């Protein structure tokens, strides 16, 4: 097989440059495999973050030819034949070294989410219908690769927006909690006032890069925007909706006789 | 030199997978000062790779299920080498641990009447695995992570612990670590330490494990004076990907078989019917018709042989390939495409669908998967007390894959996630009790400077060996000589080669600086990788029988006498990481009569 030329950005917060590595192609490989072969042969100190190598942990996010991608899920044979492959760290986060970035912004945002607070547990345990948990399950597929955060133009080149903008990853978290059949906390004002939901102008870049194919914009952000302005922000209507939903489900449960 | 970062805690937990996070939650809820230390980012630990589910006898799908059946399945799966008390506690407590996750926000798949859904898995008599599609580990880890955040536990991310610190009396005093991003060292003084560092699979070439599974906890415990056992018992998961080569070893969930997938050889034959061991004959279907009736109604037929425990299935696949009936890339076929609708497969096994589509270009709703055994899990680990997860080193606890006993010589699928929760919690409770009973501790500066010097040596050494070359040779050796089937001469040879590798580790050098340097990081992982590899080879040499995750070609049968023995390993001559390790047989605790009855009834 032919060779592959990798243009890998190397450096730290003080700056850096591209280095070229020419590696023999191996059938079926993903970009992370090629990076690992570079480490094992010529550049043992080439920094890259990875864990599962199966698209499940979301550690190896970087930018391939300028687009956010998981290094472990990008096959070499799907990239343009004969052209060099450019690999750079995620641009939205400060670089630590080479391809590893400081993603602590996301962990800080996670700490600002008011915790899940369920209704009291009934004697017979919680009951939920599959159709009701599926909405939240879509968002819980998130592997926290933070590529949606990386691509989001609100913060991609606007460091100043970061303190007041949770970003798509956390909008789906707020949406998940808002739609959780058992949760009682109302986070809508927080999302609107402090988490910058209004700054998102639904360009769907986040949805496009999501490796889990979560419909971030359509299923989380837009419904969240609607709920935030819903019913003139009437807390009674909100509570009523939550209770009503539960009442409906309870009657459904009553109709189903366990065998 | 700038002043070293130092922290004081009641309890530190090393490892932030399911067991570590559950331990941290427990200790923090008790109001103690707790640190959770992980060498990766929070939420990336290996638990995230668990797919099929968490086993718990909740009886939501089959009311007949209860802890006694789960206990019996677990012991039989482990070929009776389990610590019976751990298996009992696990079976009794796992339902509560699963329900607790719901209180923290987990969203499991549901039954029609709104309860937690449960799926079939190998070795479990009833549908028992609480799950979320085929991404249950992710659900567990995210739920625990969010709980950790809500309790405001101090989390040290990308912080690699290199050594435990001990007091003069041998009790644990804390740990020394370095920050991977900066390479700066940090020390922790702690009254109690919980090891929840996971497994050892990275010493093998084909493994489902990530770079993290380097046996850090196993090795650090041994160096600090703790005992290990069953290190020879290593689970080769029957279904890992085999092609393309670069993804060889990546896990294919047992859920594929639980949901109707079957194994076929190159002749298209469902060969597992030819490999039913006597122990499982009474409860296994004799024909394809009978097996196929069972999926919908467990009373209409007996279990398909594809759902025998993992050690049985892995050995059978190995035999088929050896007999020349394998697939083109040296595996066999796992076929669900011909048995279930495309819609069913995509709904029940979404990650598997994507994994094969994107990495192998295979549409599993249309074609069979090519699969083969992959190094997946170590049943062996730190020898612990069943109730408290305490090691023999005062103040040192171990839970999850880092501990031994629970799974005997072979773990059933689904028992790992529930193990993490049950014994993570117990370790957290016992470590808290211990910490509350202790006055403050201080760390020994001489130990600290020795360990830091040891870790920095590869950076200071010039013209030494590339750490990747040593890792490569170790993986080739363990794959070839301490793999799924073992024999005397190969094990002896492995131990000789491991001695050579030990010497080579002393001469490893890392280029570059201390900041986020994977080559140097690997150099600091090598001592533990070599240590656990020696333990595995030694155990395998001593256990002259085949049982669960230990298969000896030269001793193909289980030996009833060895079934009453644990091989216990200790490091002799102090805390140096390249010191000799002894192996001694010690009697297994005997089960009380009221539990023995469960196994007589089964016959």
SSE blueprint:
The complex is a heterodimer of chains A (259) and B (603).
Chain A lengths: L2 E10 L2 E10 L6 H11 L19 E4 L2 E4 L14 E4 L6 E3 L2 E2 L2 H8 L18 H11 L6 H5 L1 H4 L11 H11 L9 H6 L11 H5 L6 H14 L5 H21 L4
Parallel strand pairs in A: 1-5
Antiparallel strand pairs in A: 1-2, 3-4, 3-5, 6-7
Helix pairs in contact in A: 3-6, 6-9
Chain B lengths: L4 E10 L3 H12 L4 E4 L16 E2 L11 H11 L6 H20 L14 E2 L9 E2 L5 H15 L3 E3 L2 E8 L5 E8 L5 E11 L20 H8 L4 E2 L4 E8 L13 H4 L3 E3 L13 H4 L6 H7 L15 H13 L9 E4 L6 H7 L1 H11 L8 E10 L2 E2 L13 E3 L16 H22 L8 H16 L6 H15 L6 H18 L12 H25 L22 E7 L9 E7 L5 H10 L1
3D structure, described in words:
Chain A is of the alpha+beta class and 259 residues long. Chain A folds into 2 domains: 99 residues, Beta-grasp domain (Ubiquitin-like (UB roll), Roll), CATH 3.10.20; 152 residues, Fumarate Reductase Iron-sulfur Protein, Chain B, domain 2. Chain A is 37% helix and 14% strand. Chain A has 10 helices and 7 strands. In chain A, a hairpin with a 2-residue loop joins strand 1 and strand 2. In chain A, helix 3 runs antiparallel to helix 6 and helix 6 crosses helix 9. Chain B is α+β, with helices and mostly antiparallel strands and 603 residues long. Chain B has 2 domains: 292 residues, FAD/NAD(P)-binding domain (3-Layer(bba) Sandwich); 140 residues, Alpha-Beta Complex (Flavocytochrome C3, Chain A, domain 1). Chain B is 36% helix and 16% strand. In chain B, strands 1, 2, 6, 7, 8, 9 and 16 form a 7-stranded mixed beta sheet that branches. A 4-stranded antiparallel beta sheet of chain B has the order 15-10-17-18, with helices on one face. A 4-stranded antiparallel beta sheet of chain B has the order 11-14-13-12, with helices on one face. In chain B, strand 8 and strand 9 form a beta hairpin. The longest helix of chain B has 25 residues. Chain B starts with a strand and ends with a helix. The model of chain B has no long low-confidence stretch (mean pLDDT 95). Classes of the chains: A alpha+beta (259), B alpha+beta (603). At the A-B interface, helix 1, helix 2 and helix 3 of A face helix 3, helix 4, helix 11, helix 14 and helix 16 of B.
């Amino acid at each position: 097989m032919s060779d592959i030329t990798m243009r890998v950005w190397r450096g730290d917060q003080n700056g850096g440059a591209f280095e070229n590595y020419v590696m023999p192609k191996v059938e079926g490989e993903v970009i992370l495999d090629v990076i690992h072969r570079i480490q094992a042969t010529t550049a043992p100190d080439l920094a890259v973050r990875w864990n599962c190598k199966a698209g499940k942990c979301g550690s190896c996010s970087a930018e391939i030819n300028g687009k956010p991608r998981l290094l472990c899920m990008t096959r070499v044979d799907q990239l343009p034949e004969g052209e060099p492959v450019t690999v750079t760290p995620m641009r939205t986060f400060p670089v630590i070294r080479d391809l590893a970035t400081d993603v602590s912004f996301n962990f800080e945002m996670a700490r600002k989410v008011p915790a899940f607070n369920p209704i009291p547990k009934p004697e017979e345990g919680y009951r939920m219908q599959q159709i009701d948990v599926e909405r939240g399950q879509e968002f819980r597929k998130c592997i926290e690769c933070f590529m949606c955060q990386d691509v989001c133009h609100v913060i991609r080149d606007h460091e100043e927006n970061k303190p007041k903008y949770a970003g798509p990853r956390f909008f789906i978290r707020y949406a998940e909690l808002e739609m959780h059949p058992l949760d009682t906390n109302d986070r809508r004002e927080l999302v609107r006032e402090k988490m910058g939901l209004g700054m998102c102008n639904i360009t769907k870049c986040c949805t496009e890069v999501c490796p889990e194919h979560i419909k971030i914009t359509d299923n989380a952000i837009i419904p969240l925007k609607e709920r935030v302005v819903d019913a003139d922000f009437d807390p009674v209507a909100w509570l009523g909706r939550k209770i009503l939903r539960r009442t409906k489900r309870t009657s459904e449960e009553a109709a189903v006789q366990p065998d | 030199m700038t002043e070293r970062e130092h922290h004081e805690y009641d309890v530190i937990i090393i490892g932030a997978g399911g067991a570590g996070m559950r331990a941290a939650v427990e200790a923090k809820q008790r109001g103690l000062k707790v640190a959770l230390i992980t060498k990766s980012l929070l939420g990336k630990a290996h638990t995230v790779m668990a797919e099929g589910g968490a086993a718990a006898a909740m009886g939501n799908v089959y009311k007949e299920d209860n802890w006694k059946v789960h206990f019996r399945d677990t012991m039989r799966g482990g070929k009776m080498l389990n610590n019976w008390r751990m298996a009992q506690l696990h079976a009794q407590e796992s339902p509560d641990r699963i329900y607790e996750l719901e209180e923290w926000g987990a969203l499991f798949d549901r039954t029609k009447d709104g309860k937690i859904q449960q799926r079939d898995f190998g070795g479990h008599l009833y549908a028992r695995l609480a799950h979320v599609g085929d991404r249950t580990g992710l659900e567990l880890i995210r739920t625990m992570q969010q709980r950790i955040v809500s309790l405001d536990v101090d989390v040290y991310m990308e912080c690699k612990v290199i050594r435990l610190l001990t007091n003069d009396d041998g009790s644990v005093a804390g740990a020394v670590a370095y920050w991977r991003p900066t390479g700066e060292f940090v020390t922790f003084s702690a009254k109690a330490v919980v090891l929840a560092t996971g497994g050892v699979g990275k010493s093998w070439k084909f493994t489902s494990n990530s770079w993290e599974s380097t046996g850090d906890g196993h090795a650090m415990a041994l160096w600090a004076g703790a005992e290990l056992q069953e290190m020879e018992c290593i689970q080769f998961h029957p279904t890992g990907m085999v092609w393309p080569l670069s993804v060889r070893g990546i896990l294919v969930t047992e859920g594929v078989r639980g949901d109707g997938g079957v194994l076929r050889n190159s002749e298209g034959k469902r060969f597992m019917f030819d490999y039913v061991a006597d122990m499982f004959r009474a409860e296994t279907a004799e024909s394809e018709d009978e097996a196929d009736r069972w999926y919908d109604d467990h009373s209409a037929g007996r279990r398909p042989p594809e759902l025998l425990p993992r050690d049985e299935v892995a050995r059978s696949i190995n035999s088929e390939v050896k007999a020349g009936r394998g697939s083109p890339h040296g595996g066999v076929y796992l076929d669900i495409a011909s048995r279930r609708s495309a819609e069913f497969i995509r709904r029940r096994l979404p990650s598997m669908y994507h994994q094969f589509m994107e990495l192998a270009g295979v549409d599993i709703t249309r074609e069979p998967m090519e699969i083969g055994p992959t190094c997946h899990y170590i049943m062996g680990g730190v020898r612990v007390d069943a109730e408290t997860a305490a090691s023999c080193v005062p103040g040192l606890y171990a839970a999850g894959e880092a501990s031994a006993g629970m799974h005997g010589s072979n773990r059933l699928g689904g028992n790992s996630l529930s193990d993490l929760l049950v014994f993570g919690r117990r370790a957290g409770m016992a470590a808290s009790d211990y910490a509350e009973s202790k006055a403050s501790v201080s760390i020994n500066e001489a130990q600290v400077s020795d360990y830091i010097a040891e870790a920095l040596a590869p950076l200071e050494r010039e013209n030494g060996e590339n750490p990747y070359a040593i890792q490569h040779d170790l993986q080739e050796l363990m794959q070839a000589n301490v793999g799924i089937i073992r024999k005397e001469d190969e094990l002896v040879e492995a131990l000789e080669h491991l001695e050579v590798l030990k010497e080579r580790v002393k001469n490893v050098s890392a280029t570059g600086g201390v900041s986020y340097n994977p080559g140097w990081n690997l150099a600091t992982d090598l001592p533990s990788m070599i240590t656990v590899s020696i333990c595995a080879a030694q155990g395998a040499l001593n256990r002259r029988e085949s049982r669960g995750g230990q298969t000896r070609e030269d001793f193909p049968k289980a030996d009833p006498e060895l079934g009453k023995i644990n091989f216990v390993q200790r490091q002799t001559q102090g805390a140096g990481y390249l010191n000799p390790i002894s192996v001694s047989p010690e009697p297994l605790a005997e089960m009380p009569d009221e539990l023995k009855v469960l196994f007589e009834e089964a016959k």
